[in-house]
Design brief:
By secondary structure, the chain is mostly helical. The chain has a domain at 1-26. The protein is built from three helices and no strands. The protein has helices spanning 3-25, 36-45, 48-57.
Length: 58
């Protein structure tokens, strides 16, 4: 391989490795999902300001 050809081959290999690593990082997990409402309710129950506001308005 010539110098320029070796450079292109090496650069292509690095690009492919980067694309593969990004695809692996963005892969969806196989876990069961949680609905938006359930996730929001879970966050609200842990929020002390929400609990105080709930107690005042109830």
């Amino acid at each position: 391989m010539g110098g320029a050809e070796a450079f292109r081959h090496g650069l292509g290999g690095r690009k492919k490795a980067r694309i593969d690593s990004l695809a692996e990082a963005g892969a969806l997990s196989e876990e069961q999902g949680v609905s938006l409402w359930r996730s929001a309710w879970r966050r609200l129950r842990r929020d002390p300001v929400f609990l105080i506001g709930l107690a005042i308005t109830t």
